[in-house]
Write a structure and sequence with these properties.
The protein has about 240 residues and is an alpha/beta fold. It has 8 helices and 5 strands; from the N terminus they run H-H-E-E-H-H-E-H-E-H-E-H-H. Bound molecules: iron/sulfur cluster.
């Protein structure tokens, strides 16, 4: 359990943070996907040499951030030696370095780095979660694993009621559209093509859906994704939040 997640919200009379805590406990103890349970625990036992002094988290990684967010950021899955080690989403790897620097620059994060669960990082009006909460081999979850995990995402969205969902990459984009499909909001994903900077024209008055390329090391090191590209989309997100 990460007490900083809902810092400032404990002990008050609002129900949502309490429900989020209950949901978080449920997520952390989940073992629905045998392949992922085996992998996340194996990685945690064997460790990477550079992190041999760490006690790896080795469990599902819950969402992190402001319990009253306007922006919900949806990633793919924890990295084996990143969030699966530190226990906080996008924490302790290069993708997180890139993402939190961008969020800090645009006022959504209190600091540009995210090193471990007790580093003081807080998010301002933003919450980050992953479509799949356990680290998958080769960063590739199976469709059945995304489906198994979808209920947690649906419940978080229902509790947090964000105004904008920012999908990091196509898998997260599709995972969010699948939530809408299962709720009957859309009939199919086909009309909503993913591209960097796209704002989907969704029916209804739910959150706006914005897409960005995933901040993976592969994307950021090859220049497919740059800090300027993220800054531009996050400024757009700010404008959408101001409109809603
Ligand atoms: S990926 Fe999701 S559903 Fe599967 S074991 Fe992890 S937390 Fe549970």
């Amino acid at each position: 359990m990460h007490d900083a997640i809902y810092e400032g919200e404990l002990g008050n009379s609002h129900e949502e943070p309490q429900r989020l805590r209950i949901l978080e406990k449920e997520i952390i103890t989940c073992r629905k996907c045998p392949r992922l349970v085996e992998y996340r625990e194996k990685v945690a036992r064997e460790k990477r040499r550079a992190f041999r002094d760490w006690t790896y988290w080795g469990r599902p990684v819950p969402g992190f951030g402001d319990p009253r967010p306007e922006l919900f950021i949806l990633g793919l899955a924890p990295a084996a030696h990143g969030a699966n080690r530190t226990g906080r989403v996008f924490t302790g790897d290069r993708s997180g370095d890139f993402l939190y620097a961008a969020l800090h620059k645009t006022g959504f994060a209190s600091q540009p780095t995210s090193l471990h669960r007790d580093d003081g990082l807080t998010l301002n009006s933003a919450f980050i979660a992953a479509a799949v909460r356990c680290a998958p081999p080769a960063n590739k979850p199976l469709p059945s694993e995304i489906l198994n995990c979808r209920g947690y995402l649906e419940r978080e969205l229902a509790l947090l009621r964000p105004k904008v969902v920012l999908a990091l990459g196509k898998i997260a984009w599709d995972a969010y559209l699948d939530v809408l499909k299962s709720q009957g909001v859309i009939a199919s994903r086909a009309k909503f093509a993913f591209a960097h900077g796209t704002v989907a024209k969704l029916p209804g008055d739910g959150p706006r859906l914005v897409g960005v390329y995933h901040p993976s090391q592969q994307n950021t090191q090859t220049g497919r994704v740059t800090a300027a590209m993220y800054a531009k989309v996050l400024r757009r997100v700010r404008r959408l939040l101001a409109e809603k």
